Amino acid sequence: MSMLHTVNKSPFEKNSLRTCLRLARPGSDILLIQDAVYAALPDTEFAAGMIEAARQHNVYALEPDLMARGLDRDKLIEGVEAVDYDRFVELAATNDSVQSWL
Amino acid sequence: MSMLHTVNKSPFEKNSLRTCLRLARPGSDILLIQDAVYAALPDTEFAAGMIEAARQHNVYALEPDLMARGLDRDKLIEGVEAVDYDRFVELAATNDSVQSWL
Amino acid sequence: MGAIRKFMYINRTAPHGSIYAQEGLEVALIGAAFDQDVSMAFIDDGVFQIKSGQDTSATDMKNFSPAWRALGDYDITRLYVEKESLEARGLNVDDLMPLTWEDEDDDYIEKPSIRIVNSDELSKIIAGQDVVFNY
Amino acid sequence: MGAIRKFMYINRTAPHGSIYAQEGLEVALIGAAFDQDVSMAFIDDGVFQIKSGQDTSATDMKNFSPAWRALGDYDITRLYVEKESLEARGLNVDDLMPLTWEDEDDDYIEKPSIRIVNSDELSKIIAGQDVVFNY
Amino acid sequence: MKFAIVINEGPYQHQASDTAYLFTKAALAAGHEIIRVFFYHDGVNNGTRLTTPPQDDRNIVERWSRLGDEAGLDLVVCVAAAQRRGIVDADEAKRNGKDAENIADGFRISGLGQLIEAAIQADRLITFGD
Amino acid sequence: MKFAIVINEGPYQHQASDTAYLFTKAALAAGHEIIRVFFYHDGVNNGTRLTTPPQDDRNIVERWSRLGDEAGLDLVVCVAAAQRRGIVDADEAKRNGKDAENIADGFRISGLGQLIEAAIQADRLITFGD
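Above: the input entities. Below: the structure tokens describing the complete assembly.
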């Protein structure tokens, strides 16, 4: 059984991403959407946690949400991959279930 | 000029109370309402911050919200005073303005 | 799709400040009629949903917390509470409602529904679900 | 109540994930017609509201971020950005929109509206306000 | 003393409207004046008369209508926020070509200027939100 | 593959409905089936036809109605959540003694069982909320 984890909250504001990382099995697909894409910014107080997360999991960030917030897909934390909605659908289909950390 | 600070979010979920404590002047009135009353629980991971806050400020917790959540007004962090809505109104009136940390 | 599926209600929000806990419980009670393999997880502020002694009378809000006690009758008997979430909030199992169920295969003995699990155990349980709901 | 009052818009939410930033800016632009002493504070994720380069086209959402540039014309010229909030997010002033105003008392020279202040300075400024709005 | 109240969330989903209501009642009981209750963001959803909450629960909308009537409250729904969310009175229905309206008793729809005016005229403005 | 979509927040206030819409469109484009879109909590507010968003902004409600029509989507509003928030069709108006209804084209009001049923029948259930 594999699970896609989506997270939609900024890690600076709310505990959703922290809890996701505590409870996702190693090697999970984790997709940052909406305000959670801020977690992909380098040099933040949350960056060390994200660098570690990107080593343990496959971390993605939704590109339309990155663009809306003025974040450059080429300047994300290493290992975080920008994806479009087609890929979001593909991740939801290839995993056995989807958990939304709100 | 004096300001009443209200906070309505659990400190375990969101950064509102942390930011309030960073930006309230020493000696401020701080009122915990809604889910922020959980901050008045002793022995939590946030308790040390609250004990310090209760030394620097006048910290209150809205009793109807404590009761709704099953928290005992006699078992709060030392220095946190349970108050009713009449006292909430009085705090809003006696301070010069009200800031809501959401 | 005739097979029984594993449903989990993942509860992460505090009660009363928002309606998610209350309307989430309504889903679980309705869903119980569908004979799936149902469990619940209480994580983060979700552990406050089953804190004992909730009394909303002074807020004029509906006190839905007694409805938790009905879960056992609806065959929802596995309530996983994350140990780390409890500890971070200074709580232990005695601060929670004594939720139980009657085991009809064991002379209707009343058994506790709440199971304290650590993050690692819970993460495995979550990973094994077919469908998860979030409240 | 004829005296001019000190109004502050305190912006703490990220844009786009919720509407507070957008509808908060609408209040500020309408409020500018009332000739009060207006300033803004950007705290926590509120600093992202004035991040440069926002492009909502791929989300189909309205891009309201260009409206920030109108603030100077509406005589809202003091935008306090908390230094600690910027640093926690790995940002500096160059990551923000270059928001300016023209000083009519100084030969219409264009001056920066953004002022980086630390928590202690900002706490004093907030404490001196008559009315605060939160977005 | 003159208070202005701002409510930024809809009924039931968040506690904002409940807390604001109890605060308003307590302020009136203490002899204060509530010069306006302004509904903004999803707060405008407090102003629909089409809700039917469960009988064993409080009726948030009716409660505001009743208190508004008893205490002469000025319950103002922001027009821009209301248009985004579908809160409509007869005038708005006509202007926007809608075939129905849903505003509750005692509420009126007006502009954001009413919020600013309240903030200028009140001694205290207090916001209830999420 | 069969998807079921759950939307828990109203239009505009949160991005939930926007993300769900773009996900649904992409899933349909990839050849997947959307067996139901279920609106719960404040999500029911996506189902009112009385919104009039600014002309330079997307019309979230109409967008769902249109996609529902084009793709034959089953757009279901939870009745219990709808009653708390004032989303009403003709039947509900009659049952609850309301003098108006506001349901948008293509939406229908039904019970929570529709959510459970979708969760059983779909290969994937995905939730968009706050």
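Note for the figure: The longest helix of chain F spans residues 16-29.
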